[in-house]
TrEMBL record:
The lineage of its organism: Bacteria, Bacillati, Bacillota, Bacilli, Bacillales. Residues 1-111, 112-215 form the BMC circularly permuted domain. This is Ethanolamine utilization protein EutL. It is found in: Bacterial microcompartment. Gene3D superfamilies: 3.30.70.1710. InterPro entries: BMC_CP, BMC_dom, CcmK-like_sf, EutL, EutL_PduB. Keywords: Bacterial microcompartment. It comes from the Bacteria. One of its GO terms (cellular component) is bacterial microcompartment. Pfam families: BMC.
Length: 215
């Protein structure tokens, strides 16, 4: 069954070519990290996936990434969305290259899947074939390993993770206990690329079963 995709929108983006030293201290920047790229996204988990992709395509590191409480529906302003991400690099060109990767990933390669026509019930069952520095650090795994990034509403997340772990030879390396800031839950699972895909498929199917028969 093919579910309708829900892509993220990058709402605002700015580059600081030469960050002020006082601000640099707040992000614990290294001396060579002189430039910052800042963006907001309508979907937090897609934004985090996009940040990881930026670290693979450019000489940048993620220095700040946070979700906003309540999600996009309760954003503090029209350009706030659901999360903010900040990357740092040695030059504006490197940061801009990283932001290009963010746009491509957030608006094309990564997506939630709608479980109902209203798109009010959705899951994230995304497989990262090769992690960059950001998600590797978050998951506590070596850089370049496959990862299943699985997110859903609270009950669905717990049930779906159990199904994913039983379906393939994968390990739960990070658990996002519900509720998160955006009232979802889930986890990061690692294993071979094929195992991660099998886990993501099992996660999706288990939650589809819940959506079709909640009680």
């Amino acid at each position: 069954m093919t579910l309708e995709r829900i892509h993220a929108e990058i709402l605002a983006v700015r580059v600081i070519p030469n960050v002020d030293p006082n601000l640099a201290k707040q992000f614990n920047l290294e001396p060579h990290q002189r430039s910052l790229g800042i963006f907001t996204s309508t979907v937090d988990d897609i934004g985090y996936t996009a940040l990881d992709e930026a670290t693979k395509r450019s000489d940048v590191e993620v220095v700040y990434a946070r979700s906003f409480y309540g999600g996009s529906a309760h954003a503090s302003g029209p350009l706030s969305g659901e999360m903010i991400g900040i990357i740092a690099g040695p030059s504006p060109d490197e940061v801009k290259s990283g932001l290009e990767a963010v746009f491509q990933t957030a608006e094309g390669d990564a997506f939630f899947e709608a479980l109902n026509p209203e798109k009010t019930h959705a899951i994230y069952a995304h497989v990262v074939s090769r992690t960059g520095s950001y998600l590797s650090k978050e998951a506590g795994i070596p850089q370049g390993e496959p990862l299943a990034y699985l997110i859903a509403p609270p009950l669905e997340a717990v049930y779906g993770l159990d199904a994913a772990l039983k379906a393939a030879d994968v390990e739960l390396v990070k658990f996002f206990g519900p509720p998160s800031e955006t009232n979802f839950g889930g986890g990061l699972l690692t294993g071979s690329q094929s195992a991660c895909r099998a886990a993501a498929d099992a996660f999706r199917q288990a939650i589809l079963d819940i959506a079709n028969n909640p009680k």
